[in-house]
Design brief:
Elements (H helix, E strand, L loop, with lengths): L2 H29 L5 H11 L7 E7 L2 E2 L3 E4 L3 E7 L8 E2 L16 E6 L3 E7 L2 E10 L1
Parallel strand pairs: 1-4, 3-8
Antiparallel strand pairs: 1-2, 4-6, 5-7, 7-8
Helix pairs in contact: 1-2
The structure holds copper (II) ion.
The site of copper (II) ion has 5 residues, from strand 8.
Length: about 140
């Protein structure tokens, strides 16, 4: 093996490994897009072309939206699920109000598709200190 080949083969190996990792990450993200808000946010660049996977889930736990701020791409459906024993709801904070959910009991969910880029604040009108933000790119 000459010096040239010895220098380049490890570099090629690294590039292939990096590519394989990116594909594996994309597959993982596409199969599990809805387990948490954080995961869905991280997955967004990988699954943007897959309409079925464009969903982000925001659990409501311990009187908080978790995570409180999510970043998604336009067209993503956001699903909030109440994991508390107390009813909560979701109200768009800005006028005109984009959405206002009914009170969600334990295990109930509410979904909204964010079609347009922007920053959308919302809160729980039953507990106004519960606030969240959806950033749509
Ligand atoms: Cu609440």
């Amino acid at each position: 093996m000459n010096t040239y080949a010895r220098r380049w083969i490890p570099a090629l190996g690294c590039a292939l490994a990096a590519g394989a990792f990116a594909v594996a990450a994309a597959l993982t993200a596409a199969r599990r897009p809805a387990m948490s808000g954080h995961g869905a946010v991280a997955a967004a660049p990988f699954v943007a072309a897959d309409a079925a996977a464009r969903e982000a889930v925001v659990p409501i736990e311990n009187f908080a939206f978790a995570p409180g701020t999510i970043e998604i791409t336009a067209g993503t459906r956001v699903v909030w699920i109440n994991r508390d024993d107390t009813p909560h709801n979701l109200v768009g904070a800005d006028e005109p109000r984009l959405f206002r959910s009914p009170a969600l009991d334990t295990g109930e969910q509410f979904a909204f598709v964010f079609a347009m880029p922007g920053t959308y604040r919302y809160f729980c009108s039953l507990h106004p200190h519960m606030q969240g933000t959806v950033i749509v790119r």
